[in-house]
Structure formats: structure tokens, C-alpha cells
Amino acid sequence: MSEIEKIKQLRQITSAGFKDCNSALTESKGNIDKAIEILRIKGISKASKKMSREAKEGVIAVSGNSEKTSMIEINCETDFVAKNENFIKFVKEISDLNNEVSSESEKLKNIKMKNGSTVNDNLVAMIAKIGEKITLGRSKTINHQGSKNYVYHHTIVKDNLSKLAVVVSLETKDNSENLNLFGKQLSMHIAASNPLALNSELIEMKILKKEEELISEELKNSGKPDEIVKKISIGKLNKFKEDNGLLSQAWVIEPKKKVKDIIKELNISDLKIKDFYRIKIGE
Q1: DSSP state at residue 148
Q2: Looking at the predicted structure, is the pLDDT value of residue 73 above 80?
Q3: CA 89 vs CA 46, 81, 114, 189: distances in Å
Q4: For a FRET experiment, which of 68, 147, 234, 239 has its CA 20 to 30 Å from that of 121?
Q5: What is the model's pTM?
Q6: In angstroms, rounded to a whole number, what is the distance separating the alpha carbons of residues 227 and 8?
Q7: pLDDT tens-place string over residues 181-239
Q8: Which stretch of 10-19, 46-55, 146-155, 241-250 has the lowest confidence by average pLDDT?
Q9: What are the residues facing 152 on neighbouring strands?
């Protein structure tokens, strides 16, 4: 095999540039396997330098079906890379694998991709090839027996990739058009309203404590008597809880009604919101 043919083959295998392939083949004295190792080591070195930078762009990918649905956030540094065809192809394959392993991060990192290398090794190679920091971010699999999942994408990049994605799971034996319409609308509502929990009682205590601190700081120099300040604080905190519990939120399509009112109007006796998850790039 000629030197040019070896460089061609090495480029096809590794997707590295002409100069890098030529240099690796020279160093390995024409041995392609050793040249691949050399490029991988150089790739890891390049990748490690990139990892100290911030990756606030990227996409959310969703895979699966209405019974089992998985979403994963994959971050990069620029929106230009987020729309790169190689990056998109890479993300789509990872998304399908993420659904296979039910969003277990360690399993995902070590599972093999179509090219025979692990997700982690391919991630390193992609960083070296593209020249940006790329990270696996938040992920979630929703899979509840007797439930149906609904997906909403906002600002679609391509196919099942977007900048904001929601999965909501509805538990019921009903399979009417009214239910399916509600599922779609509810996923859109969650995208817009970003609830912190299904209801106000389920909002994490640390979030409520932080909000209390902010309210206290806001009212500290109000000049009002302590008793009045206390009442205002309770009122503000209750409003915060109401605005951030999904069931008590104003329905985005008809804001005079709450989400729980819409559920009641559907008149589906066994309907429950079983689960939901929302990811937005940059949040």
C-alpha cells in the first residue's frame, strides 16, 4: 500500500486531518494500527485542553416511544457546532443508546457505538476533531407501566433534536383524542411555564428556603412592622409555591383556569400526571 493510500485509510478510520495522519504514519514508520494509537493519544491531549472551557450551547435529544422515552442534553461551546452534521449524527446515536441504558450515565459512557469504540472514546475523538468542548449533560428516562408519554420540542435543530424538550407521562386507561390533545398541550405548557414539581407540596425544601431568604432580603428595608412583614412574606412564599407547582399553575392556553381545572373538565376518572421532565439548553 502506498503512503498516500495509507493516509487516506487513516483519515477514513480516524477522521483526523491530512497533516496529523501523515505525521502519525511517519512516527509509526507506516504502521496504521500504531498510527491510530498515536492520533488517539494526541486527540486525548487536545481534548483535555478543551475541557476547561465552558459548553453552554448544544442540543436536547429525545429517543424512544410513548411507553419508554429518554432525553439527554449534549453540550458544546457554539451554536455553529450544535448544527454541524457530524455532531448531529453523533448525538442521535448517543440518544438511542441512552434510551437503551435508561439514562444510566456510567453505562452510557462505556457502551459501544456502531464503530466499535465506547461513547466516552468517541466523545474524546469528537472533541479532537471538532475542536470544542463537548459534554454529556442532564438525562432522564420516563417509563411507567400503564402510562403514555408525550413529547414537545421547542426550537428544533433537526428531527428529534432541539434547544428545549419536554416529556410528560399520563397514567390512564383512556386513549381518546381528547387525552392525546391534552398530553400535547400539557407538554407545551410545561415548556412555557417550567414548573418545579407536580404540586406545591413537592417543591424541594432547599428551593423554598432560598426563596424565603430572597423575600426576607427584599422586605428587610421596607420600614413596615415585623408582623406585617411576616404576613407579606407568607403571602409571597405561597404565591411562589402556587406559581411553581404544575397543578396550581395558570393554564397557558386559558390563563383564568388552573391545570387542575383542565384535568377536572376532561372528566377522565383515572387520569393522573405520573411524571414530567424539562430540559432547556443554557439553563
Answers
A1: E
A2: yes
A3: 22, 12, 12, 30
A4: 68
A5: 0.80
A6: 78
A7: 999 999 999 999 999 999 999 999 999 999 988 888 888 777 788 888 889 999 999 99
A8: 46-55
A9: 166
Among candidate residues 252, 239, 150, the one with its CA nearest the CA of residue 203: 239
CA distances to 62, 109, 149, 199 from 182, in Å = 20, 36, 12, 18
Long-range Cβ pairs for the range 154-161 (8 Å, 24+): 154/191, 157/59, 157/82, 157/83, 157/88, 158/83, 158/88, 159/92, 160/61, 160/62, 160/63, 160/92, 160/95, 161/59, 161/60, 161/61, 161/88, 161/91, 161/92, 161/95
**What values do phi and psi take at 256, rounded to 5?**
-75, -15
53's grid cell: 472551557
Cell of 72: 439527554
Residues 6+ apart with CB under 8 A from 203: 196, 197, 241, 244, 245
What's the CA gap between 3 and 25, in Å, rounded?
Answer: 9
- First-to-last alpha carbon distance for the chain, in angstroms, is 52
* Cell numbers standing for residue 50: 478543551
CA distance to 24, 164, 182, 256, 281, per residue, from 155 (Å): 41, 7, 21, 27, 11
Helix, strand or coil, per DSSP, at residue 155: strand
Tell me which range, 28-37, 107-116, 223-232, is most confidently predicted by mean pLDDT: 107-116
Extract the C-alpha cell encoding 109.
Answer: 459512557
Our CA angle for 141, 273, 167, nearest 5°, is 35
pLDDT of amino acid 69: 98
